[in-house]
Amino acid sequence: MLLGTQRVNARGHLEIGGCDTLDLAREFGTPLYVMDEATIRGNCRALRAAYAKRYPTSLMLFAAKAFINMAICRIMDEEGMGLDLSSGGELYTALKAGFPLERAYLHGNNKAPWELELALDHGVGRIVLDNEREMALLQELAAARGRVQDVLLRLSPGIKPQTHSYIQTGQIDTKFGMGISTGCAMNGLRTALTMPNLRIVGLHCHIGSNIMGLDSFEMAARMMIRFAAHVRDELKLTICELDLGGGVGVRYTPDQEPPSAEDYAEAVITGLHDELAKYDLPPLLLLQEPGRSIVGEAGTTLYTIGTIKDVPGIRRYVSVDGGMSDNPRPALYEAKYSTLVANKPEAPLTQKVTIAGKHCECDNLIFDADLPDVASGDLLAVQTTGAYNYSMASNYNRFTKPAVVLVNDGQAELIAARETLDDLLSHDVIPERLQKSCAACG
Ligand SMILES: Cc1ncc(COP(=O)(O)O)c(C=O)c1O
User: Fold this and answer.
1) Is 360 annotated in the active site?
2) 281 and 317 share a domain?
3) How many CA atoms lie within 13 A of 352 on its CB side?
């Protein structure tokens, strides 16, 4: 399986964005996240075009949680995307990257006062309120600033899409949002309407992540419009914006067929048009906020193969120089990945092995990977690691976070430096009383 601009070049090596992966590994070291800029930009453009031609009053946001740093914020700005930000840290990154925050939406199910203050003080366009506690908090903070803040309310429509249970988020039994069927959504709106410093502009839902079927998205669109009609009738409130979240799946393995941007838009907008007409509602601003489908297939992680261990008659473990600290998804969700040996991607596949990490856990990255003959020093490329890898990376076992390199047209540019050993120590503090017994403390 070759994705995006991946191809096998004249040297017989895996190339991404016109860059030979062996050269990338030599220059930047491994493990290394490689992000394919043309694929990221292409995905933004395909999504925006698919929605714009069917429903011109739409705005596409990038869910920054999938992969955020300052360079990606710049790309999203250039591509005319908005940003879905889920924390003060993500907001601060966008702010420092010069992203126009009027196109940003702040999410989260338990926002801290400082996060709301940061959003208010820097003109975040919309705050998506998850619950009544947040409403009261934002009302107080906005009033203290003499501001009226545009808000959306996050609802749980009661839809359980087919995906891993840890990433189902639209069912009634969830920590996110206010349930429609439980009456909490309508009550929440009533409460928000009493708050003079909040202006309710819209409704939001996000039903889950890595979803391959389109019926749940269409169902969410229909349910949310029906609820908007109910709100108009009950509260005389016009809903001007509808944010239907993200959640489209990507290709992790060759057998998977994720929906195209065109099919996604078609399903959602069919549902939307039908219900708007049925309930005689005016057009509203439609938002989507995908993360994974924008950056997932654009990312490849390069690892160097080290120890190869045979358990006779049972299994061969091929260990790489990273693992669950750079990709926790196999451990979290039993996520599956595909792989290529970057220095010989076309060599015949001769064996089934387990690709293991180097952490103090059974941090297998791929069970039953089909590989050619490999030896220590070969370069392994794990595909579709652009989403929820770098953003979920940790320093477990005091590993340093890998570098991220952006490739395009034969050019490779660092967009996140590899952490150093001293970076690992930079937040450690030895209290004075413990320094007395420390020969190394100067
Ligand atoms: C509120 C919200 N919006 C958007 C997304 C992005 O989802 P995905 O990366 O699956 O498109 C998420 C992630 O789960 C989310 O929680």
Assistant:
1) yes
2) no
3) 5
How much distance in Å is there from the Cα of 351 to the middle of ligand 1? 37
Same domain, 113 and 240: yes
Domain interval for residue 198: 107-290
Structural domain contains residue 62: no
166 and 214 belong to one structural domain = yes
300 and 266 together in one domain: no
Q: Is 247 in the pocket of ligand 1 (CB under 6 A)?
A: yes
Domain boundary among 239, 263, 290: 290
**Does some domain include residue 150?**
yes
The string of DSSP letters for 32-79 reads EEEEEHHHHHHHHHHHHHHHHHH-SSEEEEEEGGGS--HHHHHHHHHT
Q: What is the CATH number of the domain that holds 138?
A: 3.20.20.10
Shared-domain flag, residues 308 and 284: no
How far does the chain reach from its first CA to its final CA, in angstroms? Answer: 54
Q: Which pTM does this prediction carry?
A: 0.96
Q: Is 20 in the pocket of ligand 1 (CB under 6 A)?
A: no
pLDDT digits (tens, 9 = 90+) for 82-109: 999 999 999 999 999 999 999 999 999 9
User: Atom of ligand 1 at shortest distance to CA of 296?
Assistant: 9
Of 184, 360, 362, 438, the catalytic one is 360
Decide whether any atom of ligand 1 lies within 6 Å of the 204 Cβ: no
- Helix, strand, coil % in the chain, rounded to nearest 5: 35, 25, 40
**13 exposed, middle or buried (CB, 10 Å; 0-12, 13-18, 19+)?**
buried
pLDDT (tens digit per residue) in 128-173: 999 999 999 999 999 999 999 999 999 998 877 777 777 677 777 8
Residue type, 243: D
Domain count, the chain: 2
Any idea which residue has 């600290």 for tokens?
A: 325
d(CA 76, CA 415) in angstroms, rounded, equals 14
